[in-house]
Design goal:
Number of domains: 1
Strand content: 35-45%
CATH topology: Jelly Rolls
Number of helices: 2
Bound molecules: N-(carboxycarbonyl)-S-(naphthalen-2-ylmethyl)-L-cysteine, fe (iii) ion
Shape: globular
Largest sheet: 8 strands, antiparallel
Oligomer: single chain
Helix content: 10-25%
CATH architecture: Sandwich
Order of helices and strands: EEHEEEEHEEEEEEEE
């Protein structure tokens, strides 16, 4: 149930399934303290995906740029603490992919409704790019675009399903990636949405 996407990118099919009973109430608690919201890009466009964060640092976007912040700009308060089940899952998945001692300090939670997409981009707002990123998919399916180190290289299409975990590090850390528009579907636990959360060492 392991698929190698790159030299240091590993897809762990269903890795999060044993954690789901604990992940869902933890997500509900995060969302209650820091609701999903649509952010604006530095260029002034509204994003398609709604997002929130938990942990010491949260990723934000506004007219001033992309960055990590210890405070939720909506409430002025710190982001909700990272639930233990999130950090445990991230630590175990990173270890399974060969990254020992991964301790995330930031968790970006993305919510996709049908029709929502994420265009090709690189993740480079973290202070050190040495640390891996662990991504967890829940709810309705998505097609993940796994590109190269330049925008023009053609991207592989990889389906991501409820419970799938991907770990990205090393030479694959700066690959372009994105999500195709989500198809209409209903998941028995999450309804008509996909939740993706990524665990990062941002500070
Ligand atoms: C490959 N999220 O939040 S997760 C993001 O499904 C993001 O919501 C997508 O891209 C989502 O930035 C994809 C998979 C992922 C996350 C980070 C990566 C793939 C990555 C960083 C480097 C290379
Ligand atoms: Fe990304």
């Amino acid at each position: 149930r392991e698929e190698r996407l790159g030299a240091q990118a590993l897809l762990l099919r269903g890795f999060a399934l044993p954690f789901v009973d604990e992940l869902l109430p933890a997500l509900t608690a995060v969302e209650a303290a820091a609701p999903f919201r649509i952010m604006v890009t530095p260029g002034g466009q509204s994003m398609s995906v709604a997002l929130t964060n938990c942990g010491a640092l949260g990723w934000i976007s506004d007219r001033g740029g992309y960055r990590y912040s210890p405070l939720d700009p909506l409430s002025g308060q710190p982001w909700p603490a990272m639930p233990e089940v999130f950090s445990c899952l991230a630590h175990e998945a990173a270890a399974a992919a060969g990254f020992a001692e991964f301790v995330p300090d930031a968790c970006l939670v993305n919510r996709y409704l049908p029709g929502t997409r994420m265009s090709l981009h690189q993740d480079r707002d973290e202070r050190s790019l040495e640390h891996p990123i662990v991504s967890v998919s829940l709810g309705i399916p998505a097609v993940f675009l796994f590109g190269g180190h330049t925008r023009r290289e053609t991207a592989q299409r990889v389906p991501l399903l409820h419970g799938d975990v991907v770990v990205w590090g090393g030479e694959d850390r700066l690959r372009f990636h994105g999500i195709l528009p989500i198809k209409e579907a209903v998941h028995p636990l999450l309804g008509a949405q996909r939740i993706n959360f990524t665990l990062r060492k941002a500070g």
